[in-house]
Amino acid sequence: MSRRRYLLTALAALVLVTGCGARVRPEAAAPAAGYPVTVKNCGQNVTYTKAPSRIVAYDSGILETLFALGLRDRIAGYVMPHGQNKDIDGSPWRADFERANRLGVDTISKEVVLQAGADFVYAGWNYGFGEDAGLTPQHLTELGVPSYVLSESCRNGIGDRARGTMPALEALYTDLRNLGKIFGVSDRAERLVAEYQGAVRDAEASVRKDRPRPKVFLYDSGTDKPFTGGRFAASHEVITRGGGDDIMGDLQDSWTTVTWEAVVRANPDVIVINDYDPPTAAQKQAFLESYPPLAQVPAIKNKRFLALPYAALVEGPRNPAAIRTVADYLNRIGG
User: Fold this and answer.
1) Count of beta carbons in the 10 Å neighbourhood of residue 265
2) 3-state DSSP assignment of residue 314
3) CA dihedral 278, 129, 181, 195 (to 10 degrees)
4) What is the pTM of this model?
5) How far apart are the C-alpha atoms of 240 and 227, rounded to whole Å?
6) Integer CA distances (angstroms), 33 to 49, 51, 120, 184, 244, in order
7) Which N-terminal stretch is annotated as signal sequence (predicted)?
8) Closest by alpha carbon to 320, among 206, 164, 159?
9) For a surface tag, which of 28, 38, 316, 331 has the fewest beta carbons within 10 Å of its beta carbon?
10) One fold for both 37-155 and 197-333?
11) DSSP states of 104-144 as a string?
12) What is the pLDDT of residues 127-145, one digit of tens each?
């Protein structure tokens, strides 16, 4: 058989086989330069074979971290509850929010990820990820989509799905450095870490030494029971580094529910309100002032309330500036 006839015969056989439903295994693509890279995320080593180019992300703090790293052009779409719209209005990265593609949903799902053509999902436990929501990193692995979990939200095995394995600023720096490796922007990540560390040092240095440390309660939401931040929430670092004592700082969790009895016993001097809608910060303050069990609490009697944006109180690049805001406020009321 001639070589030409042999090749034609082989080609015909290949067409026949593939037409019957068989698939020819493609050759593996050569690794991108500098890849694979491996980072430790929530205690697990995770390997990425290339720099992602179609991100789907959830939550304003997560998005602002991506914007700070200069990754807006790699965002295929983002999901953010409408209650966080105020974060966009006051964001240093408002232009990035407006230019990025906001998906028309409040929650991430496998369908949303696939429709966006995502090759990377950045979210957190209770920040888009959750068994009840039907989307976890394991679900994404089964779809062949890499993911990364917000370090503030890492589950710690204490109690029922408690979250937090490191101080929130350490979590922020860890995520910046890990994302820098994953996306090939490590130099920018290190510059941001140095900038934020410097801002935190300056904020701490501004705390007046001649004043007491007021007891501070972080009020997020809830009427029957208050939702607040524990030791591993960014709010804890914002309060304590700003010169206050976080009355829920002993809770080995990030964001969680407590009792009003615990708040009354702690007798806070100041209440920081997590400002996202609904209800508004003014409505939250009105409720607190009208709630009879709190009537004798110093923060209520002296009307000492400080509203901070949601994005300043969850892990994200607004944390250092929020520490300075708390320090300035506590300095003013410190006498």
Assistant:
1) 9
2) coil
3) 20
4) 0.88
5) 19
6) 10, 10, 18, 10, 47
7) 1-22
8) 206
9) 28
10) yes
11) S-SS--HHHHHHTT-SEEEEEETBEEBTTTTB-HHHHHHHT
12) 999 998 889 999 999 999 9
Written as one string, the DSSP assignment of 20-73 is TT--PPPPPPPPPTT--EEEEETTEEEEESS--SSEEEESHHHHHHHHHTT-GG
Domain spans of the chain, in order of start:
37-155, 197-333
Q: Tell the CATH topology of 37-155.
A: Rossmann fold (3.40.50)
Between these two residues, 178 and 25, which has the higher pLDDT value?
A: 178
- Residue 31's alpha-carbon distances to 3, 35, 103, in angstroms, are 35, 6, 31
The amino acid at residue 136 is: T
| Cα–Cα distance measured from residue 79 to residue 77, given in angstroms and rounded to the nearest whole number | 7
Q: Is 34 left (phi over 0), alpha (psi -120 to 50) or beta?
A: left
Task: Record the tokens describing residue 100, joined without a space.
Answer: 């990025």
Whether the upstream peptide bond of residue 292 has omega within 30° of 0, thus cis, is no
Helix (H) or strand (E) holding 18: helix 3-19
